[in-house]
Structure formats: C-alpha cells, structure tokens
Amino acid sequence: MDRKDWPLFEIFIRPKNGLSHKHVGSLHAADARMALDNARDVYTRRGEGVSIWAVPASSIAASDPSEKASLFDPADDKVYRHPTFYDIPADVKNI
Amino acid sequence: MYTQGLDAKTEQSAQPSPRLVTEQEAALQGRFQERVDAEEKIEPRDWMPEGYRRTLVRQISQHAHSEIVGMLPEGNWITRAPTLRRKVALLAKVQDEGGHGLYLYSAAETLGVSRDELVGQLLSGKAKYSSIFNYPTPTWADIGAIGWLVDGAAIMNQVPLCRCSYGPYARAMVRICREESFHQRQGYELMLALAQGTAEQKRMAQDALNRWWWPSLMMFGPSDDQSAHSAQNMAWKIKRFSNDELRQRFVDATVPQAEFLGLTIPDPELRFNAETGHYEFGAIDWTEFNEILKGNGPCNRERIEARRKAWDDGAWVREAAVAHAAKRKQRAMKKAG
C-alpha cells in the first residue's frame, strides 16, 4: 500500500455523554488507530468531544439522492402518523 | 485562513464549454437552480452542473492551499517569539491553519478529486493560493499585522461562505470561522502591546501596517468590473457579496481600530464620508497583485520550495505509517490465529 491508498475515514464525535456521535468531517490515515490519533489532533483541539469514531468511508452504505422521491415519498401522505391528525375536544386536558 | 477571488477575466477556465446542453440537462439545471434559490444546500451526491463542480473544486482547493502556505510566513517567527505566551498563541494559530487546510481538502474531495491530485497541483506550481502569503515577515510586528489585518480580511470574506450553497464547504467554513476569531484578536493584542511600547516598538508596528495594508485590501480580489466569475457565482450562491462590497466593509471596520492603536493607515486619500457613512480610500495598485499571481512576488519561489521540501522530507513518515499499519494488521491476524 503506498501513500495514495491511505483509506478515507469519516469522523464522528460525541460532544459530551448523553449526546449522539455526530459527523464532523473526514481524513485519510494508514489505519484506524492512526485515524483516531489524527482525528484527535484535527477535530478536538478545543474540547469538542469526549469520544471519537473513525469509520472507513468504504463501509458506509448510502441511499441514492436520485431515488429520494421513491424512498421518502411514502411517508408524506401518512398524516395519521402524527399526533395532530387526531381530534380531541379542547376540554380534555393532559393529552 | 483565507479565500480570494483570484480569477482574472483572461483565465482559460472562464471560457464556457462548447458542448451543447441537452434538453434533459437543461431540466436538471433548472431544478438545481430552483433548489439553490430556495436556499436548499447541495450535497456531494446530488446532481450539479459541471461548472458548479469545477468552480467549487477550484475555489476550495485554492482556499486549502492558502491555509497550508499561510503557515509559512508565521512559522518563521515561532522560534523567536518574544515570550512564552506569544509563542504558544502562535503555535496554536499555525496548527489551526494546518487543520483548516485539512477541512478544506476534505470538502474538495467530496467533489471527486483526490488529495494527492490537489497537493500535486500546489507543488508543481500550477495551483494558485492567496497572494498575501508571498510577502515576507521580516519583523515581529508582522505577526501582529497578519493576525489583525490578514485574518481580519479573511474573516470578512469567510463569514458569508458559511452560507455557501455547497454543504461540505459551508460546514467546513463554520468550523474555520469559529476558530479564526482568536487569530485576529491575538494579532490586535500584539499590535496594541507594540503601539503602547517604546518609540522603537511603535515604529515597528507602523512599519508593519505600512507594508500589510495594501496587500490586505488586495486579498478581496479584483474589482467587481474585473472579476471573472462574480455573477454566476452569486447566482449559484457560492458567493454572497461582491469583492468591492467586502473590501469596503473591511476598511470601515479596520480604520477605527488603527486609530485606537494610534497608527496611521498608509493612504493619503483615505477619508470618512459622513453622507455615505463609509471610508473612501485610494486606488489599489493592481499591477503588484497581478505580478504576484504570475509568480513574481517577493516570496513566491521560496514558499513553493518550502512546501516541496516539506513534502520530500516527510516521505519517510508516510512510508513508516504504511509499514506500521501493515505490521499491526499482521500481528492482529496472527493473534486471531
């Protein structure tokens, strides 16, 4: 493997316990351990996180934006999935 | 640190592609423009016009190169900073610039170019980077002037880029702007210390202002009537304000700061117009700017040589990282049996 083949890692950071890891960017590294070290130096220079995930970009399966309509449209007409679909008299409280 | 309108009208890339636009493509372009007009962000795998992609690759990579080359003039003073406080600040700032370069290269890579391709363009001298980094830093006051003026101009330019239509670029800019604000403040504080110091220190501060003022104004790029891509980039919402608009804002913000320092802006034509509420300033010497872009600035050669040397001297580190990764993998496999 030469330098050109350093894989791309996507970096996720948990800002503090109780919150989810969030995507912050990416970097190249020879392996996952070095990706974590580099992510520490690049993405947490000011106390931005308490935990880092480095995920090989090649391991991420992504939906195709051109299929956005067929993927997500089915949810658009299902208003009955939302609480506002149901009529409750104003006199009824705590619901 | 900074992005700049580097594209003069004569540049080849400004010529439209001769290819005919098909009906289907026209429809895609129309939909794309509607999304941009509605302030929707464009993400890497979305359809985009080829010109949009090309413009972004050029702008983001030039911006990344500027961050990396921008480490050099300041790096010059790390070992000679007058106090430990100044030294840690300068180290942190230069380290930030390296990080900013990385965020931006990553954003450019989402558009389908490789990191090595981009670095190769910088090292071969093909790629452009901000004109400002081709000036030397002979005195300590230059470090103050860079933080105050160069980073100040950069912030003025970069804040609107946080709303750029291309998602990865906009997100990188949010991070960069957040980190950049300490850069300008440490520079101004440094200038303040010199301006309030001995007569010799004050002279040094004035000398630095004299040398950095005009190059800082040039950082905003050619005047609007000379700028190659302005209208299209505005329509694509890559750019939000024109070069001249941003330059005016910078002058308006900076002149009072210079007055507070007790320093004089080196422009005899500078005056406040009470009617418009803006400062009017003298004509910019664009010959100097164009010469620097052509590679004839005071430090162009030195900067690229320094980058090439760093790349060559770092070869063994890149090789060692690969060897180490291979060994670690082998060991893990053996252990798993």
Overview of the molecule:
The complex is a heterodimer of chains A (95) and B (337). Chain A is of the alpha+beta class. Chain A has a domain at 1-58: Ubiquitin-like (UB roll). Chain A has 2 helices and 3 strands; from the N terminus they run E-E-H-E-H. Chain A has a 3-stranded antiparallel beta sheet with strand order 2-1-3, with helices on one face. A two-stranded antiparallel ribbon of chain B has the order 1-2. By secondary structure, chain B is mainly α. In chain B, a hairpin with a 4-residue loop joins strand 1 (271-273) and strand 2. The model of chain B is unreliable at 7-15 (pLDDT under 50). Helix content of chain B is 63%, strand content 2%. Chain B contains 13 helices and 2 strands. The chains are: A alpha+beta (95), B mainly alpha (337). The interface between A and B is medium-sized, with 24 and 28 residues. Chain B: Keywords: Oxidoreductase, Plasmid. Chain B: It holds the Pfam family PaaA_PaaC. Chain B: One of its GO terms (molecular function) is phenylacetyl-CoA 1,2-epoxidase activity. Chain B: It comes from Azospirillum oryzae.
Please state roughly what percent of the residues of chain B sit in beta strands, choosing from under 5%, 5-15%, 15-25%, 25-35%, 35-45% or over 45%.
Answer: under 5%
Major pleated sheet of chain A: 3 strands, antiparallel
Integer-rounded radius of gyration of chain B: 22 Å
Distance between the termini of chain A: 61 Å
CATH class of one domain in chain A: Alpha Beta
Could you state the CATH homologous superfamily of one domain in chain A? Phenylacetic acid degradation B
Structural domain count of chain B = 2
CATH topology of the largest domain in chain B: Ferritin
Uncertain regions spanning at least 5 consecutive residues of chain B: 7-15
Structural class of chain B: mainly alpha
Give the strand order of the largest sheet of chain A, numbering strands 1, 2, ... along the chain. 2-1-3
Number of helices of chain A: 2
Q: Return the CATH architecture of one domain in chain A.
A: Roll
What value does the Rg of chain A take, in angstroms?
21 Å
CATH class of the largest domain in chain B: Mainly Alpha
CATH superfamily of the largest domain in chain B: Ferritin, core subunit, four-helix bundle
And the CATH topology of one domain in chain A? Ubiquitin-like (UB roll)
